[in-house]
Amino acid sequence: MDSLFKAFTVFENEDGSFKSEIISKSIDDLPPGDVLVRVDFSSLNYKDALSATGNKGVTKKYPHTPGIDAVGTVEDTSHSSFKIGDQVIVSGYDMGQNTAGGFGEYIRVPREWVALMPEGLTKKESIILGTAGMTAGLSLRELQKKNGIEGKLAIVTGATGGVGSVAVIVCSKLGYNVTAVTGKDSKADYLKSLGAKNVVNRSEFDKDPRLIDKGLWDGVVDTVGGKILANAIVQTNPNGIIAVCGNANTNELNTNVIPFMLRGIKLWGMDSANCSIKRREFIWNEAANLIDFNLLEASIQTVSLEELIETYPKILKGEISGRVLVDLNK
Fold first, then answer.
1. Cis peptide before 313 (omega within 30 of 0)
2. Which of 7, 227, 306, 316 is the most buried (most CB within 10 A)?
3. Nearest CA-CA partner of 318 in 189, 183, 204, 228
């Protein structure tokens, strides 16, 4: 095993600006941990792009290697739960935030962060799930538990994104009548191919909400926040569930208590970073059984570490649809 490896690394300049480079690092530079993994695939998530631009709310200290997802092979371990050669997926917790992440050819992490790869999935399919599949799966699990699905109407905002596209597929497979919200009109046919019955332009939601509006949705999966979420809240039917799992538009939410009091709706935050390994394995396996990965192929972009430098700013500008995979062998 070569002790040197490539890593996408973000540096803070003296003037407070940030730059990204591909550098050589030593395995000795990695933090302590129970499991050393040779990374084959990572993925680009919104949080990774924030870290790469120097967002101190995500990453406190630089230089840093982002990447909250990683799929690869165990190269060394001090824990009996794993053996050398195991195929594993690591996602969430502190990886890629303040712990060196999947944008490097090696990671070393605590045993509690590592899950065996779901049965029947390839490495590529596992990374397509990753945090996006986990977040979508957790959201749909809450809708299913709290509200049922028979004949219900669901809406997914930010539907062309990584979480949104998986959520559209899973919602449809579970039996919801799905409406997809997107700012990309050119993706309407693609969203319908994933299972959406209707596609609505985000401009219909990106406006100041009423105090309460006509009830339209039994379940909401929101990935964007802001006015779009606020309008989804006031349009949610009695006893409806709103799963909040993203802030691609904004962190802010200007709403009121009336829909909650008059309709008994519930707003649930999805914490995909810190849920247990057992729950992760359950959700990933459930999602794997519901997802036709061929449907997602049209929206998957695969880049190398070098190409990632030009790619990550696009996700912050809303220019990315679907999933961006990072191939560490490319």
1. no
2. 7
3. 183
Number of Cβ within a 10 Å radius of residue 217? 22
93 token code pair: 């917790």
Beta partners for residue 10, in sequence order: 20, 64
Q: 276 φ, ψ to 5°?
A: -70, 160
Separation of alpha carbons 146 and 168, rounded Å: 18
Residue with tokens 């030009």: 310
Structure tokens at 74: 């165990």
Tokens of 67: 């990447």
Q: Which of 73, 74, 124, 116 is nearest to 282 (CA)?
A: 116
